[in-house]
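Let us work through a complete example step by step.
Step 1: write down the sequence.
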Amino acid sequence: MAMKTSSPRKGGIGRANGPEGVDSIPLRYGDDPYVWACWLYYEDGMTQGEIAEAMGVSRATVNSYLADAREKGIVNISIEPARLASLTIAQELKRHFGLSDCLVVPNDDNTRPLIGRLGAAGAQALAKMIKSGDTLAVAWGRTILSVGEHLEVGGLQDVTVVQATGGTTASFAYTPELTTAAVARAISARCVNITAPAVVASAEMQRMLLAEPLIREQFDTLARANRIVFGISSLRPNSTIHTSGFFESVPLQHYLAKGAAGVLAGRFIDERGRPVDGPLDDRTIGMSLEMLRGIGTRVAVAGGFDKVPALLAALRGGYVNVLVTDAATGAGILRADGVTSLDGKLSQRQKSAPVANAYRTHVKKFLNNPNDVVEEMLDGLIAAHKPYLQPVGSRRALVARNGPRPGKVGLVIGGGTGHEPCFVGYVGKGLADAVAVGNIFSSPPPDPIAKCAVAASGGAGVLFVYGNYAGDVMNFEMAAELVEEQGIPVRTVLTTDDIVSSPIEDKEGRRGVAGNFFVFKVAGAACDRGLTLDECEAITRKANDRTFTVGVALESCSMPQTRRHNFEIGPDDMELGMGIHGEPGVSRERLRTADEIVDTIMDNIFKEMKAEPGDRVAVLVNSFGATPLMELYILFRRVEQRLAAKNITIEANWVGHYCTSLDMAGASISILHLDRQLTDLLHHPCQSAILTINAPEPDEAARS
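Step 2: predict the structure and record it as tokens.
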């Protein structure tokens, strides 16, 4: 039971401090006053008198609620762990960001798409807020369209629903016009569309259109909005802002280079929520950020772990006062903003002090000057692996000695350091022809990427393969433009094997992690066999689509400059869904046995892999840096058992350090679902400093 503290309670939940017209029951409790009363009494430690004041009822009514709840078993069994966690996260988000209200959707088993669950929750929130006479602005997107599809409110009068931005030329179902119409239809409201494009050709055209009487009248309606519901777009390559057509004439790189973290109603903000200036500012027709922040009730509905930076930016900027999200995203937002008490509240429902280290405060490392660690590492790597690779004008651009050749598609990979042996270890005959190297956990700049492409080019084009991260996308795209100006065609495949980093309906927004190993191997083999650029791209995409990875961390990594863990994982906890850049996992859970951890990972993979008995797979059990082979073999043992139980054959396997995160304690499991073509390419000979596969003996080849 939490300690009693009167200051945050009184008035913190009642009618007076909520957004305009909000029902007295905060969103996180649904419509159940029993759950609300029980939470305040048993979890917050409030007295019945304080609860009566907060709920706006009599003390006798509170007493009745508590007695009835005990009789009905609500106190003992109705607040299940997932619901309890979502309530805790909602409460902490509300407190930390000063929100008027917050609704957090509990994590489930991913059987229902996240957008649908968020849409239903957003509809529930909106239905409690919208009143007769309101003017509701609607910003478009997949999630907001889902809100409209789940929304059903009757008995309202004189409600106006107005489009928050101009329209687009896109053909998808969640355009501004269709999204606004769906919401208006659900509440039988008058619908006002903005009859102009969201982005026009010039600033002069924008001024002319805004001066038109019809559009001016529509904007006057928008200015009267007292509520708004909107989504938040990340800047990942598959985000709504990309598919909208906004960037047909303006490259995303301009905004990324200025630190853009997210997009609200077509407007860009940085990680602190500040507007990011750009070439679209004077060409955009729609609500400004100032107008948005001036609306009384600002409901943001968004979720998915890839949106954590964008959501955090919107919260920091004060654009949101009612948040609807999911538990994993909510926890990620809080951790990203330095809330250290959340995990203790989730596991013990009370604040836990940081785990003290009685012996040392820093991690020991073999270092000279920490600022020189990447350059000194590259010196040693180049000296150690001279037979396989050499620099091209810079140590940040390395080319295989026996890779590029005339008539062959060149394969260029790259990424930040700290993942060794990925990416530098996969350069050689039958693998990548060149690798561009960045700082620790940072994308390589465009110049070394372009140098790699030129060095790898054999006249048949170049294939870029790299992880799906905003910085990598920006710099590789800039490099591709430079290379194509020299007459070298470039194709790109983003790796997206981390299946827990985004839900399946947002598959293209997932991160590329240790499954890079399989994708690089297949791509290198396809290029080495002399296939065309189109064929190499198609095969590489297939390998990526059939690769599935989940990672688990036991301890976070430590950067050379700080020699401290990036964050603390409790002595009895683990992070599920860990990435490879030292970021926290998708969810924090209690530490379990090795077999139980593998079962959780494999259950997630089996949901997506759709393998049949008799199928064949390749397996990678990868250390994040500090986990020894002894423990990796224990994990592989269970992986083999789970696959055998489904009559799935392991065609090939690798166990060890293949894609690390400095000194993180943890591991990932990657499964490549093979077909005949992928199996053939997986066995294709290759030779690099890290990976060597020899050609099969003649009799063995005949048998296969």
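Step 3: interpret the result. Confidence is low (pLDDT under 50) at residues 1-23, 349-358.
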